[in-house]
Write a structure and sequence with these properties.
With 276 residues, the protein is an alpha/beta fold. It folds into two domains: 200 residues, Spore Coat Polysaccharide Biosynthesis Protein SpsA, Chain A (Alpha-Beta Complex), CATH 3.90.550.10; 67 residues. The protein is built from ten helices and nine strands. The protein is globular, with a radius of gyration of 19 Å.
């Protein structure tokens, strides 16, 4: 069996998928399998993938159900001891897997190069990557990129898979669950080229992403895995996000989730009062 299972979820991205696959094939570390999890593409991805000759590459066509379903199906089919994700619009540098597999942690991620609309951009300070106990850094935003991470399969047995009912922020939710339990190793060398700015990126289609972050944060409100500082940071951020959402609902007269967020806000206020 291969040591590492690489999972590429894709949906109608054939023009970019071939480069992502090639960056896996060109890895200096060779003990891997690649699972291309096609989320119902209609752009010729199936014909292209099935013509690939490398026996380490396995193509799976799925009904269109979203990226979390595609990743989860990949995890469940994976034969490797370790799981690596690669988004179909990102690329790996050749030594990524070779350097990551040397980790002594259950989770390791790397620095990355950001490209937006074909131009290299510098990440803001809030996006700074690091290792160690990362839970507090995962509260305000998603601080681990799926394409940069290598995760021991045992981790998913402990914390579960991606939440398939989340249309966005499914990675944010998973990182919270993982970093509440595990320390994360970090390789300072950029080993991933991360592309952004595409019109089909999920983050550009949803404008109320904080709703899903609030649901994820609420789950950790009374977690026994957190220390006092982490609890304080969590509830402070949770209250801030609830306040922003509630004001937005009133402003735009969109009250569908108002009562739910209002209840979470009150629960967080009571928790903060007891915490102090």
């Amino acid at each position: 069996m291969p040591k590492i299972s690489v999972i590429i979820p894709t949906y109608n991205r054939l023009s970019r998928l071939s480069k992502a696959v090639q960056s896996v094939v060109e890895q200096s570390y060779k003990d891997w399998e690649l699972l291309i999890m096609d989320d119902g593409s209609t752009d010729g991805t199936s014909q292209w993938a099935q013509a690939l000759q490398d026996p380490r590459i396995h193509y799976h066509h799925l009904p269109h159900s979203g990226v979390s379903h595609a990743r989860n199906q990949g995890i469940q089919r994976a034969q490797g001891e370790w799981i690596a994700f690669l988004d179909s619009d990102d690329l790996w540098l050749p030594q990524k897997l070779e350097k990551q597999i040397q980790t002594k942690c259950m989770v390791v991620h790397t620095e990355e190069i950001w490209m937006r609309n074909g131009q290299r951009v510098n990440p803001k300070k809030k996006h700074q990557k690091r290792g160690g106990r990362l839970f507090i850094h995962c509260i305000p935003l998603c601080c681990i990129s799926p394409s940069s991470v290598l995760i021991h399969k045992e981790v998913f047995h402990k914390v579960g898979l991606f939440k398939e009912h989340y249309p966005v922020c499914e990675d944010y939710d998973l990182w919270l669950r993982i970093t509440a339990l595990y320390h994360v190793d970090f390789i300072e060398e950029p080993l991933v080229i991360k592309h952004g700015g595409h019109s089909d990126q999920l983050s550009r289609k949803f404008h109320s992403m904080d709703y899903w972050r609030v649901l994820s944060l609420k789950e950790h409100l009374r977690s026994p895995l957190l220390n006092w500082n982490e609890r304080k940071a969590l509830v402070t951020t949770l209250l801030k996000k609830c306040d922003i959402l509630l004001k937005g609902y009133i402003k735009h007269q969109n009250m569908q989730n108002y009562d739910e967020i209002f209840r979470i806000q009150n629960e967080a206020k009571a928790f903060l009062k007891n915490l102090e």
